[in-house]
Amino acid sequence: MKAKSITKGVMVLLCLFTTALSTTAHAEVKLIGSGASFPFPIYSKWFKDFSKENKGIRVDYQAKGSGAGIQDFINNTVDFAASDAAMSEPEMAKVETGSILLPMTAGEVVLAYNLRGVKELKLPRDVYPAIFMGEITKWNDPRIAEANPGVKLPDQPITVVTRSDSSGTTYVFTKHLSAINKEFADTVGTGKTVQWPSKNQFIKAPKNDGITAQVKQNPGSIGYIEYGYAKLTGATTAMLENKSGKFIAPGAESGAAALASAEFPAGTLPNSEVPNLIAWVSDPAGEKAYPIATFTWMLFYQEQDDAKAQVLRDLVEYCLTEGQKSADKLGYIPLPDNVIAKVRDASKLIQ
Amino acid sequence: MASDPFQSADTANAVSGPPSASDYAGDALFRFIAYACALLIVVLVAYILWKIGGQALPAMQEFGPSFITGTTWDVSKGDYGVLPEIWGTLYSSLLALLLGGIFGVAIAIFLTQGFIHARLAAVFRTIVELLAAIPSVVYGLWGIYVLIPLLRPTADWLHETLGWFPLFSSSLNGPGMAPAALVLAIMILPTVAAISVDAFRRIPYKVKEAAYGMGTTRWEAILKVMLPTASSGILAALVLGFGRALGETMALAMLIGNSNQISVSLFAPANTLASLLASNFPEASGIEVEALMYAAMVLLAITFVVNVLGLMIQQMTMRKFEGKK
User: Fold this and answer.
1) Contacts A–B by Cβ distance under 8 A
2) Residues B27-41: pLDDT tens digits?
3) Which of A32, A319, A333, B261 suits B239 as a labelling partner, its CA being 20 to 30 A distant?
4) Are residues A223 and A313 located together in one domain of the fold?
């Protein structure tokens, strides 16, 4: 008898406990995302602020890298993902519930260098691909000197620092170099990891911060990093010649000018009614445009449970309005207004 | 009075009594746990091998031996080869073993052969062992911010004056083999030193007394008597140190330059298998994961061969110097 009443009591308690749990779980929506490390500083700020403003909502984001984010998205282990290299068609075909790709912010890839006494360095269009192909090996090479009259360039070998890990930044950078230099396209090519020339002056370092550290430590070195990191660490960056022959320094304005030329392809993503918002700015034509800029995307499913879909739509709206305001400060480029309108329309398809 | 003498002894004094049932049970339990632990280690190694091997199998079938002789790692073209990494792993580890081994054994001799007071020796030993507690990433940062700038003037001078010599044939552009091998040497130093110290300590004191009794000088005693007698322990220390150097990842990924090339120059950047795995795993997918698993198998195979070779040399010296079979 006694044993029975105890079990009864435990059952009642358990019931109470689980109902209590389920009610709190209902009020609380937890979103998990993973992917690109390039926009991580700004995403983490957005998600933190969004979670703070909306009670009971938590957004967690893990900067695993673009490739890993896409993998998680396909395996259905996350609520959303992020990628610098968008998604390829075969990858999209693997997502059964349909995918929506929205550009959320944009960034620039800059060339950081370390040359004592050289505060300003101009690199022409034919020169910087040649440096990254290992053709120009000395800082006082006549082709560099010609573009920088009055600058005292040292007789020093150029140490080229590239990424040792697979990276969206490498993808964007090599895509641009391949677009402006045919020889680069043929020998090195475009990819998240590429086979850089096997020469002694080419060294590799992991992640954006790894390259930044190596460039800062080694006189005579040059490397490509995301603009936000350069801004954060105060690295000196080179001015690059754009398509219209002007030398442009990286920054919010020149980046926005580059994005203005982005043309989204007409039509939709394959096998769906989602507008295709994948555009690459591999060689912008504008006079004030910095040559290497790119969007970075968030990946959403078309179908999920209603509560989550609502929060995801709110999240996108928040990023498009409040979020864009913090972009410049963190070294990212705010999206142009016409792009924001397109993204807002497309986000309605998150159901 | 006529009772069993054993029985009375048992009740009179529990200390000398026969083992009780619970003693037997305790023994059996302990034996069971010991066997289980030993077996578990074997099972764990087998499981790791089976898992990694299973994932590496598709790449093994596709690339076969050309994976080991290939020199490019190009994901976009699907071309995978790890010869530069194998070379870099062995070269950096051997350089580190050479440096760390010489210093480690020298430290062990210094600490055990009466050069300094025993208490001071204990302090020194603790300091050397403290090196093992420093995280690998700290060594990497130390290498980037302290060691490379420190090496640069010497490296530049060596390259300019002795550039014809293959070891100095390239200039030091920051990360490279020399800083990587130096940091590795420091990392394996505590392992080599601590085990060598134990090897010297294990020699019975009478051996040293006998050597002095025969009229040897201190150095003759150390080099001709103590060192050979401790040789199997020292070799074990070197094998362990080498194993540590082969598998070291983080510090090397930061210091070696991760460049896919084969060069004997001390100042050229190179790459190692462990560093390749660490750099490429996070974003790998599909066939690249399989290729990376294959690379992991290659690293395991190298470590296995090194350990077996070390064991064989150790047994050879034991037969030669210690008269054991």
Assistant:
1) 107
2) 999 999 999 999 999
3) B261
4) no
